[in-house]
Amino acid sequence: RVKRGWVWNQFFVVEEYTGTEPLYVGKVRSPVPAGGGEVNYTISGEGAGTIFLIDEITGDIHATERLDREQKTFYTLRAQARDRQTDQLLEPESEFIIKVQDINDSEPRFLEGPYIGSVAELSPIGTSVMQVMASDADDPTYGSSARVVYSVLEGEQHFTVDSKTGVIRTAVADLDRETQDRYEVVIRATDMAGQLGGLSGSTTVTIVVTDVNDNPPRFPQKMYQFSIVETAPVGTAIGRVKAEDSDVGENTDMTYQVKDEEGVEMFKVTTDSNTQEAVITVQKPLDYESKKVHTVVVEALNKFVDPRFVDLGTFRDQTIVRVSVLDVDEPPEFRPPSNLMEVQEDAHVGSVVGVVTALDPDTANHPVRYAIDRSTDTERIFDIDANTGAIVTGKVLDRETAGWHNITVLAMEADNHSQVSRASLRIRILDVNDNPPELATPYEAAVCEDAKPGQLIQTISVVDRDEPQSGHRFYFTLAPEATNNHHFSLLDIKDNTAAVHTQRMGFNRQEQDVYLLPILVVDSGPPALSSTGTLTIRICGCDSNGAIQSCNSTAYVVSATLSPGALIALLVCVLILVVLVLLILTLKRHHKSHLTSDDDEDMRDNVIKYNDEGGGEQDTEAYDMSALRSLYDFSEIKGGDGGGGLGEGGPSGNPASELHALPQWVQSPDLDFSVFRDYICRKVEQADEDLSVPPYDSFQTYAFEGSDSPVPSLSSINTWSSGSEQDFSYLGGWGPRFRQLAALY
């Protein structure tokens, strides 16, 4: 082209040049003449001076190195034309490009390999497995160097590949995982659209054939044999069988079941989910003497059946399991198994209650011996005949004490006591009428003094420890000793209760406030039994509405004698009162001795109380101060300064601190109180300096008021004047506790 006077050809260079001479690329030339007539050409840019060289005079450009389009497709350079003598630019600098021309020098490559695919067995022809893809580094816009086609080199018997897309498909429909579970297929990719001279690359594709449930379970054997002892408990495993399945995974999961009726009744089959085995267990007790061999039909079937393959056959199989029962020496068996017996409670000792029977189930049929487990009959109420099994009474029975007895009977072989059977036996004690009826409670009733005849006082009911089969029926009447009673009447209501009514008009509790009414109660037998109970009736004072206000406690007994039960209750009460009195006296004596010991230990707790007030400073007859002064030997106390305060040398530790009777004090005009003052100050000072003394010491003195006190006596009791202006009449309203004080005022 022509640009600003430049004239040059478009530059191309072929890649992978292998010649020995530099490869001619092109020529640059400027039509503008130089001043001296000579032009100097130079180039700069990518590869200038290394890959590309230019002749300064002619402008020819050559490539000195082997180029690779896959690494770099073009180079950008700039050209200059200068006057050789002046070195001035003849034209502005121009830019040009050298393109690397592609040749087919790169083969196709599978960059995502290795490839692993999968396809289900028995898939139809043409089922897509996976897709492979190869890439070519050559220029896809130039020629056919980058046009790739695919083909199968190995494995074409089972798989095909689409030449354009690279999709691998199945070529047959009978792929069987159990025969071959994987295939190695080699796929080739060729460029130049597969034409002669094209380059190629290949990869190996691993195709895994996945399983489908196309194989039914099969037992390796048609018969299995096991043996088990007849004493095996229910749930004992007899053995295991397993059906084989060529499939894998969940397609091998199966269940087992018993098909024949005999086997369903005697045995149970479960499936071990870990091993897929059939576990045969005992469902009912076995008996060698009844049946020595059992035949069980076990069937295995797949859990998950693929409906696409049901036409291949039934996916189940059966086998026969033969179970042999082994004989063992068994303990005797109780027959019949009834465990209930009955006996009258008045049965004599040695009476037969019933007979238990046990037989040896073995073919030897050994004789059986019987016994009672004494841990269930510790009182030995029953015995058993060792040979016949007859159970007899060993003691007198009482239904009211124990109505039922539960014992365990042992049956063992005569020559082998280790073979023992146990049977629980319940013995019911049947009732006989051996307990008289009694009043339900010790009845007490109250009746007003002004009661009218026919007034209901109390309804009586009774209890009976017996339990007759026909039910209770009781009859009530007054006891013979109360036949002369004209105060109260008894009415049998016919429903096992009776009512007591008044029979006279009014009562006087001053004459008699308590009546004891004996009542005779008889049951229906047989034989008929009776007892006498007493109803206590108190005569009480009532208000106008009939509400009871008060009752006296003096009793007048209708009956001449007290019952033994009442006497025993009275003696027990007296004994309890005596014990309580003795206990209280003992506690008081102990408390008194405790207080005495406390007084001996610490005299500081003594409190002296004086109830007289004194007459003030004019009262000179109250105390003798000389006697008070001589109460302590102050000279001895002065000499003993080593002691503490009152806490150490006080009343609790000094023998001179005995309590004296208060002396009479006659005031003397020459009394000197400095002795008391000095003593008190010294003790206070000692207590303040001794840090170990507790803070409960105190000393107070009221020995004197001082001389010439201007305050008169504060006592109102010593006031002789009767004309006081204060009114003390309100003291009369303070109650009985201040009655004496009100009288003084």
From TrEMBL:
Principal location: membrane
Family annotation (Pfam families): CADH_Y-type_LIR (PF01049), Cadherin (PF00028)
Record has Cell division as a keyword: no
Cellular component terms per the entry's GO annotation: adherens junction; catenin complex
Nucleus recorded as keyword: no
Bilayer topology annotation: Single-pass type I membrane protein
Compartments (UniProt record): Cell membrane
Ranges annotated as spanning the membrane: 566-587
GO biological process, one term: calcium-dependent cell-cell adhesion via plasma membrane cell adhesion molecules
Gene3D superfamilies reported for this sequence: Cadherins (2.60.40.60), TCF3-CBD (Catenin binding domain) (4.10.900.10)
Keywords tagged on the record: Calcium, Cell adhesion, Cell membrane, Cleavage on pair of basic residues, Glycoprotein, Membrane, Metal-binding, Repeat, Signal, Transmembrane, Transmembrane helix
PROSITE patterns linked: CADHERIN_1, CADHERIN_2
CDD domains in the cross-refs: Cadherin_repeat
Superkingdom: Eukaryota
GO molecular function annotation: beta-catenin binding; cadherin binding; calcium ion binding
Record domain Cadherin: where: 36-110, 111-219, 220-334, 335-439, 439-556
Function: Cadherins are calcium-dependent cell adhesion proteins. They preferentially interact with themselves in a homophilic manner in connecting cells; cadherins may thus contribute to the sorting of heterogeneous cell types. PB-cadherins may have a role in the morphological organization of pituitary gland and brain tissues.
Protein name as annotated: Cadherin-22
Organism: Leptosomus discolor
Source species taxonomy: Eukaryota, Metazoa, Chordata, Craniata, Vertebrata
